[in-house]
Amino acid sequence: MGIDAGFDMVPSLSKGATDRLSWGQFIDHIKEHYKDDNQVEIKPNYILFKAGEHPRLPFEGHKFLRFSSKVSGSIAADTNVGSYIETVTRIAQTHFGSRIRCWNEGGYEYGTYKWNEVNESLRSYEQPDDVETLTSIGQPLIRNDPIQEMGTALFELKHIPGNGRGLVARVDIPKGTRIIYEKPLFTAGPMPASELEGFLATKLKGLSKESQRQFLSLHNNFPGKNPFSGIFKTNALHCGFGSLISGIYPTICLINHSCMPNAHKSWNSVEGHETIHAVRSIKSGVEITISYFRGGTSSERQAELKEKFGFSCTCSGCTLSPYSLQASDNRRTRIRNLDKAVGDGVRMMNNPRESLKDCYSLIQLLEEEFDGCAQALTARTYYDAFQICIVHGDQARASVFAERAYKARVICEGEDSPNTQRAKSLVLKPELHNNFEAYSVIWKTTRIMLPQGLDTTEFEKWLFKLEN
């Protein structure tokens, strides 16, 4: 007897090149992380964790369904299996995003697959059916490929008509995949162009010849007497939302802008690097794009892009028919207005039900405008809903909103993002938020006071207090 916990891969991986590549990178990550751990043993066909019920990770990813063990009882406690489950889960989420489905029977959560399916997959680990994979463990899955050897196997640099250079997917990239993470060559804060030129010249002198070449090869939309400043203004990306500090990245700065992006950039303040995650599935041959700023209506976006980056946008969101463009502008105006209303602290205190309804409306609009690819904005809205509930003592709803914010953050920022970890910590313990019951206890509930037996529509009505 005991409590099982772990994660499932949903959907399971295929034998295709993309999934093989992703699984190989994941296995390499696991091997590197546990290279000095005597409880982790590399077997011919899998990695064995000598803890708990000895969970395993096969070298052939298409066979994998579940990584789990009993996490209660003397064996679990003596071998610290819970720590292995948690760490492997975190690493897996970094590589596979929303495909990783976590569960813990202690919280009445259960895996996707039946145990007979899982046991059959475990037995298949013993007999390899892909000799090439086994003979190349620890080696690149695509041999003699210089792009992969540089760690950029998911994309390649190509000329984009009308946009100069850009990054294009070399393989199909699943939603939630971390495409690249990169530290800046250097950063700079706001300063006059004349001062910035001297500052950048000093920074460049301290870089290697290769790093200097990378910077100088970037496009300059502001030519003139301050060439370094022009390159910086054209390419620099803010180190986090609202930050006055911007950075130059040798690869990420080559990603072009779109008002309807298929990837999201986020700054990891702990690791000190920028990350790019796919927020929708990206087909091989499709350009990878990000949004350089939060945006607004089409005319506002064009003006800001021209002023700050020196170009006009011709993305799919800016070249709609006049009727569709006006409809998009109307949605984005409503999104901005709702976002402002949701953030009104006085309204949150005095009329929380209306604030929560605005969160619901905002999420629906984000879905309609961005076709399910506005994870960062959606995550922030779910966190706003969390705060509305928690300040009035409603832990049940707050926990659900924290979980939704967490899942959205995993997709667009990864498991290791401070924002993701913050949301995750509030799922099980929403009462730890600094503003718990700060306004009132009119909605007071405990975390486990969730309604049972509701269908999806009825649950959403309960969650957002849409009841008549």
UniProtKB/TrEMBL annotation:
Domain SET: 153-293
Listed InterPro entries: SET_dom, SET_dom_sf, SET_domain_protein, TPR-like_helical_dom_sf
SUPFAM superfamilies assigned: SET domain (SSF82199)
Name of this chain's protein: SET domain-containing protein
High-level lineage: Eukaryota, Fungi, Dikarya, Ascomycota, Pezizomycotina
